[in-house]
TrEMBL record:
GO molecular function: DNA-binding transcription factor activity; sequence-specific DNA binding
Transmembrane intervals: none
Source organism, top-level taxon: Bacteria
Keywords: DNA-binding, Transcription, Transcription regulation
Domain HTH araC/xylS-type: 217-315
Protein name, entry field: Helix-turn-helix transcriptional regulator
Source species taxonomy: Bacteria, Bacillati, Bacillota, Clostridia, Peptostreptococcales
One Pfam family from the record: HTH_18
Length: 328
């Protein structure tokens, strides 16, 4: 199953499949950003994938929508959009995992443009046959696991407890090192723990309709298209014929932060990039990210990065040129 999924993905524009002796990689390079997914097949029917996405969108082949592997997703950093079987949306965030048998969407959405996550693919028919003795020795029944978590709904989503988070963190660590012994060890520990532990109540959170998600994304596009402008939320809400409270709720549901916090960080991240990549005057950068008062800009910048804009520029210059202060 996974071979078909990867080969279908390789046909997409901007996506390339590369094979190596120990892993397979999907590499993404398109106008929205770039990323990579590294796949380690641990046993026939069981594959671990590390997801590094520096993009808002990762395309998925329509041909993969016919496949329904049991899939565990764990978010280490960022946010991932999940389209549920009832056509509502929910967002996987840091320290949460979801278990699903849904078919793939036509694209993966990462609302914040940066995501790190771990995926475990199970082809239950293949895996339970190829590892029958091992599963019996560890007293692991994957069909029981599937019934436990997704018998009533096609997607289960929950915050990890300390034990699960510890195991998943180690699984990520040793996946990066391609340590198959440790990956096997911690994977079986995770499966066993999920079977014997009392399942958590599926996370209660906002579920959003397609229209609500589209409003949040259009608002995001308008707000970030020109950082020099400070558009009142009231004006934006009127444009979409919704209340200010509704717009704020939709935005936070999709992007994980309220509008003011998100925009402040966006402005400072943009300023940091301009300070690092250009020699434009700080006064000009301040205006470009929406601060007519340079002193206010410097204060907010230092609060986020711990350095004044000028100090930050000097530090980045030294780092990029591999120079010590004594050589300047």
């Amino acid at each position: 199953m996974l071979n078909n999924i990867l080969e279908n993905s390789d046909k997409l524009p901007g996506v390339t499949l590369k094979n190596s002796p120990n892993s397979r990689k999907l590499l993404l390079n398109h106008s929205e950003g770039n990323g990579k997914m590294i796949f380690h097949t641990i046993f026939p029917g069981l594959t671990i994938a590390l997801v590094y996405a520096d993009t808002f969108i990762w395309p998925e082949s329509e041909s993969n929508q016919k496949f329904h592997p049991l899939l565990l997703n764990y978010c280490l950093f960022g946010r991932c959009e999940l389209l549920l079987d009832d056509n509502t949306y929910v967002y996987l965030q840091e320290k949460e995992y979801c278990i699903s048998c849904q078919s793939a969407q036509n694209k993966y959405i990462f609302p914040t443009g940066k995501y790190r996550g771990l995926k475990v693919y199970f082809d239950l028919d293949t895996f339970t046959v190829s590892c029958k003795e091992i599963l019996e020795a560890f007293d692991i029944d994957l069909w029981k696991l599937q019934r436990k978590y997704i018998e009533k709904k096609n997607t289960y989503i929950c915050e990890t407890d300390d034990t699960e988070r510890n195991i998943l963190t180690k699984l990520w660590k040793f996946s990066e090192k391609s340590s198959y012994f440790h990956m096997k060890l911690y994977l079986f520990e995770l499966l066993y723990y999920m079977l014997i532990s009392q399942s958590h109540t599926s996370k209660r959170r906002g579920f959003y309709t397609k229209t609500q998600v589209e409003i949040a994304k259009k608002a995001h596009q308008i707000l970030t298209s020109d950082l020099r402008k400070h558009l009142p939320i009231r004006v934006l809400a009127n444009e979409f014929s919704v209340s200010e409270t509704s717009l704020k709720n939709y935005f936070k549901g999709v992007y994980g932060q309220n509008i003011s916090s998100y925009m402040r960080k966006k402005r400072m991240d943009t300023a940091a990039e301009m300070l690092s990549e250009t020699r434009r005057p700080i006064s000009e950068i301040s205006i470009q990210v929406g601060y007519s008062n340079q002193g206010k800009f410097a204060s907010v910048f230092k609060k986020q990065f711990g350095f004044s804009p000028l100090e930050y520029r000097r530090i980045r210059y030294l780092e990029k040129n591999d120079m010590s202060p004594e050589k300047i």
